[in-house]
Amino acid sequence: MNGQTFEEILQENEARIHFHIRRLGIVDPEGEFFAEGQLALWQAWRAFDPDRGSFSPYLNAKIRQALMDHIKRKKRDQRNDEVHMQQVLQYGQHITEMDIRDEEIWERVRAILSDNQWKWVHYYIIHDYSVEQIAAIEGVSRDAVKNWGRHARNKLRARLEA
Predict the structure, then answer these.
(1) What is the rounded CA–CA span in Å between residue 25 and residue 39?
(2) pTM here?
(3) Mean pLDDT value of segment 112-139
(4) Fewer beta carbons under 10 A from the terminal one: N or C of the chain?
C-alpha cells in the first residue's frame, strides 16, 4: 500500500474481485457484485492496520464477506418480493372483479400515490408489464421499480385497512 492511491490499489486488485465473484459462482451481468467488491476494497483500504498483518488475506476476507452479504440481501429481497407479488395478485384480482376499466377507481388510486408509485400501478397492474419492461421504459433500475411497487402496495394496503 505504501502511499498508493485507491485507484492504484483498485487496478491491482480488480482481478481479485473477479476471482471471488467466480469462486462463489456468481453471475454478474450488471456488475452489481463487482461494485460490492470495489466498495469492500475501498473499506478495507481505509481500515487496514499494517501492524495487524498482511493486506492480501485481510482484503480477501473482506471481499468474500461483502459478496456473501450481498447474496443474502438479494435472496431476502427476492423472498419479500414473492410475498408482495402474492399480495398484489390478490389485490389485482379484486380490481379485476371491480372492472379494470372503471376510471373513477383509478383516479382515486392515482390521488393516493406518488408519480412513480402510479407508474408502477399503471404499467404493472393495468397493462401487465414486467418489472424489467417498466425499468426500460422509465430508464431506471429494476430495484427502483420494485421500490415503487413496494411503496404503492403499502400505501394502498394502509388505505384499505383504514
Answers:
(1) 20
(2) 0.53
(3) 90
(4) C
